[in-house]
Amino acid sequence: xxxxxVLSIRGLxxxxxxxxxxxxxxxxxxxxxxxQVVGLLGHNGAGKTTLVNQVVGLVxxxxxxxxxxxxxxxxDPDGARRLASIQxxxxxPITGLTPRTAIQLVGRIRGGSRxxxxxxxxxxxxxxxxxxxxxxPSQKISGGIARLTAFCMTAVVxxxxxxxxxxxxxxxxxxxxxxxxxxxxxxxxxxxxLLVTHNVREAERVVxxxxxLDQGKVIAADTPAGLAASTRGVLTVELDLVPSLGGGLGWPxxxxxxxxxxxxxxxxxxxxxxxxxxRWAQAQVDAGAVERYALTAASLEDVxxxxxxxxxxxxxxxxxxxxxx
Length: 325
Hints:
With 325 residues, the chain is an alpha/beta fold. It folds into 2 domains: 5-223, P-loop containing nucleotide triphosphate hydrolases (Rossmann fold); 229-320, 2-Layer Sandwich (Alpha-Beta Plaits). Helices cover 30% and strands 28% of the residues. It has a 6-stranded mixed β-sheet, sandwiched between helices. It has a 4-stranded antiparallel β-sheet with strand order 2-1-4-5. The longest helix is centred in the middle third of the chain and has 16 residues, at 173-188. The N and C termini lie far apart (46 Å).
């Protein structure tokens, strides 16, 4: 039996009035099935958060339909919200509470029994390795722990649809891996998960389906394998440049889709030209223009950059880190 759609969006449009009249969403179609993680990718301003706010009834669409587990979310936003759990971009203030108390409070509000909520809370705390902060006043915890606490508050009694808006922001690399596993587990336990992120490389390992937004429109939607199919036989070459390199970098023939940001340059190359590029890159190292280089299989991030343009490329994982103290 095929899993049912817990979230179904058709023709969703939203335009914000004002001098510039921003078209935030423009005819979006999207489905999230039970047991599925759908990644919603896009640069800042692509319309991801506007879409999420309409799903949970905070913003009313200009046109289109949203159904949560069969309920019309536009006509009955309160009913739809009861079926949804959301972790917003901004953490919910929990001043005066400990992480454990905040998680348990939300679990009880969402209808869980005291015993079940306590057990689920402890399980999430252990899964994300935040036990050292679980009973600490919230004003003494770091932004990363606050972010993980917000996820636990969303997941302690999850709705039929769980919406996570940039859940890994401020989380250190070790616990970020644990968080991705916990997100995957939510879907494996039966929830539909809509994951809003710009971290393409890390999201790739947990999502079942990807939807890419650009300027409010869906420009691509497929499984990770389907989107990556166009990169078969293509390699990515990455260079760490020396600080003294002032002018442009003269790439060898065959390298395309080149980008440069500060001291990092990258491009793509057909696999059959890999040996030539390695010889060229090593010569650049010997000449003192490049500190190091690497050739790797092209990734979904490369697909994303090709679709939306390098000027709106997602933030790399390492650029997001804020180590939890």
